[in-house]
Specification:
The chain is mainly α. The chain has one domain. The chain is about 90% helix and about 0% strand. The chain contains one helix and no strands. The protein has one helix spanning about 1-50. It starts with a helix and ends with a helix.
Amino acid sequence: MRDLVFRGAARQAWRPASSIACLAFVALLAVAFWAGAVRIVQAFLPLASMGF
């Protein structure tokens, strides 16, 4: 019974760290996406100024 209590406490302590890691990963993906979008727009702006 005592072992189950310790496992439950360890699992509860691990979950917030996992959530923070997941949020950090999603934030990194969002930053990478927007950086790519900005780069693509910057690549096409000179084409737009030429009349295409």
